[in-house]
Amino acid sequence: ESDTASEISFQFNRHKKTPSIGSHSSDMASVSSVSGSVLSVYSGDFGSVDAQGIVEFALDYDEKNREFQVHVSQCKDLAVVDEKKGRSDPYVKTYLLPDKARMGKRKTSVKKRTVNPIYNEVLRYKIEKMVLLIQKLNLSVWHNDPLGRNSFLGEIEIDLASWDWSNRKLNWYPLKPRSLSAVNGVDHRGVMSLSIKYVPPGSLGKCPKNPPSGEVHIWVKDVKDLLQLRPSGVDSFVKCYVLPDTSKKSYQKTRVIKRDTNPVFNHTIVYDGFHTEDLKDACVELTVWDHEKLTNHFLGGIRLGLGTGLSYGISVDWMDSTQEEVAFWQEMMLAANEWIEGLLPLRSL
């Protein structure tokens, strides 16, 4: 089901091409595909009512269970959607931004025929605290329509890096009009679905496949909504480097998928020679290109790393990962031997 994986030795002073490890189809079968919308937070909004009212909620982080909790208590004085019947059927929805697609949305139940709904529900996210602190919480209130033509009733956005975590009390917050600049959906260049995993040296015990050095596994699944450069579509492929190494021994690429703005690659790459300390200074660069006979055209890319601007003490311009990319890389570092799934927007590099 997947392309034959490529395995590359990752060492800056020495490079050795190791034999192909063959198909990863058996390994990949245990990993579920990424699900969830990659559309705007406001997809499906057909309403035109003005935001009004207040919402009462509290935030907490359960250190023992590594769980972020949003206790949604109630709302008051919400806008009326159906003025003839004087009714609204509100529910509360939350996202963690900027990567709303990967973490997914959480929703309360729908309370019918009321502008003062009472919920007393807890919305939960399994997430590491250090990853949570570079996220924003988007909490919005919606009117539920049976035909899916939901109406936006108001929102509040909270920067979790500056949140007072000693404050666990329920508090009232005014609902505001939508802030499209803050949650403007997926970048127009497209969005890549992938999974990554770090296998530390010796972590698999006496397993025959136990790597003598650490490995980073990259599974490029697919890309959605690529720029269409020609009427016939786009002939795309993905390049991969582990920076700072830009040699041919670091370079890997997928096959070309022709005439498709939503290509499915299902290609795995393994880089070995990684020590845990290298994860702080290296950067996995994945770029998408349109293939033509004379020259290839850059469509967009991502850089997975800590985004510190430094690599082994040297200032570099490519260590510029976005908050979303940093959170994805940190999650991999904190969960050894586990596949981390993500949907990341492509950007200019």
TrEMBL record:
Transmembrane parts of this sequence: none
GO molecular function, one term: neurexin family protein binding
UniProt KW NAD keyword: no
A single GO cellular-component term on record: exocytic vesicle
C2 domain ranges (all copies): 51-173, 188-319
InterPro entries assigned: C2_dom (IPR000008), C2_domain_sf (IPR035892), SYTL1-5_C2B (IPR043567)
Matching SMART domains: C2 (SM00239)
Subcellular localization, as worded in the UniProt entry: Cell membrane
CDD domains, per the entry: C2A_SLP-1_2, C2B_SLP_1-2-3-4
SUPFAM superfamilies: C2 domain (Calcium/lipid-binding domain, CaLB)
One GO term (biological process): exocytosis
Annotated keywords: Cell membrane, Exocytosis, Membrane, Repeat
PANTHER family: BITESIZE, ISOFORM I, SYNAPTOTAGMIN LIKE 2
Annotated protein name in UniProt: Synaptotagmin-like protein 2
